[in-house]
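look at this fold:
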Amino acid sequence: MSTVRSIPAPQAQAAARRTWSDELGRTCLYAVPEDPRFSYCMVVPHGLHRAAGGRIPLVVAVHGTERDATGMRDALTPWATAHDVAVLAPLFPAGVGEDGDPDDVDAYKLLRLGSLPFDDVLMAMVRDATMRIGPVGERLHLVGFSGGAQFVLRFTYLHPERVASASVAAPGRVTLLDADLDWWQGTRDVATITGRAVDLEQLRCVTLQLVVGARDDDPHSPRTQRARLLYDNLRGHALDVHLDVVPGARHDLTPLVPAITEFLGDLLSPPGRNVECHPSQ
């Protein structure tokens, strides 16, 4: 016999989420109330609220094609716990588009699947997390590995006003700031496709890191070469970008983590934690 599940009223859902701050440490995966096809997990250090004082610094760690959201979270957990920083790891599952859509697996990397905006889904996750743990920083710190690095780069292009830093780790495909190339290779028609133009002045407020293994040299996806190409492109637009090539590393997150956490640590330790950027008008 089928049953009908009773869905709590929005006010009851909000009240329940506000009590979730009692669950500290590594959380389970939670569905996003605005779209339960998507979920996220977090690490919330026990001393977080005391350490943060006002707004809580939040790192968003985005998975690759394999969808290992908890693995992304766990890779940053020792550092986050030691530095009183919260980490949110989204899960963008495959299979959310129309049946048989060949682009479904990779669509989140490009931020769009038909009318579905994955950047808006991430912001819905951040809103839900804010109700659970308290107000987070106006600007997020983004980390993405492989396919997640593609998401992080393109999200930063479209929403630089919400990004403090972006660590783009070993992307297989990159988007250049190039008005002569169509999206996603370039940015010529980005406003037509996404509804948002690239704001270079705001983008210059973001600190970027490109990090890749020195031996991440698959001939079908020469990530080291592409990272250097992207680095030169971003520097050519006067962006604050750093390139870290990790000796001996292949296409694996683990050996890249020290470079990523050093980058984050420099930004999140005082006085970098409180630095604000005011782009010229």
Notes: Residues 1-12, 14-22 have pLDDT under 50 and may be disordered. The longest strand covers residues 35-44. The CA atoms of residues 213 and 252 lie 8 Å apart. Residues 118-133 form the longest helix (16 residues).
